[in-house]
Specification:
This protein has 126 residues and is of the alpha+beta class. The longest helix has 16 residues. 27% of the residues lie in helices and 47% in strands. The chain is built from three helices and six strands. The chain has a six-stranded mixed sheet. The radius of gyration is 14 Å and the shape is globular.
Length: 126
């Protein structure tokens, strides 16, 4: 059987590039790693979360999420990919505007297309 989508190694590389830009607080880098019609779903507000579609909406989400925090770290604990799909188990830590540290654990389910992240579904624990 011939595979038509990206290889697993390619998918992992694309997701890692996105995560590295996120860790650096580089909104432009994050957006360069995403398709023009990208989709991000977040768990906020509960219980159903929010959906952001397209470069403009996702850029605003990432800018508003990254800028108010400092010392952000998105640490990959485990990663599994198959074809164009990737699952990342992670720990996210930060220092808020009030100087207080925070942390949350979760998983991302990402789909890649054309060498970029096309969809990122974010789920948090607790």
């Amino acid at each position: 059987m011939q595979q038509t989508g990206p290889t697993t190694a390619t998918t992992i590389g694309i997701v890692q590039r996105y995560n590295e830009s996120f860790n650096q607080g580089d909104v432009d880098g994050v957006m360069a790693a995403m398709t023009g019609d990208c989709v991000v779903e977040t768990p906020i507000p509960p219980p159903d979360g929010s959906r952001f579609q397209g470069q403009e909406a996702v850029r605003a989400l990432r800018r508003d999420f990254i800028q108010p925090t400092s010392n952000i770290e998105f640490a990959t604990e485990d990663m599994f990919a198959s074809g164009d799909m990737c699952l990342v188990q992670w720990l996210f830590t930060w220092v808020g505007q009030d100087g207080q540290p925070g942390r949350v654990r979760g998983v991302d389910l990402s789909k890649v297309r054309d060498g970029k992240s096309a969809e990122k579904l974010v789920y948090v624990m607790g």
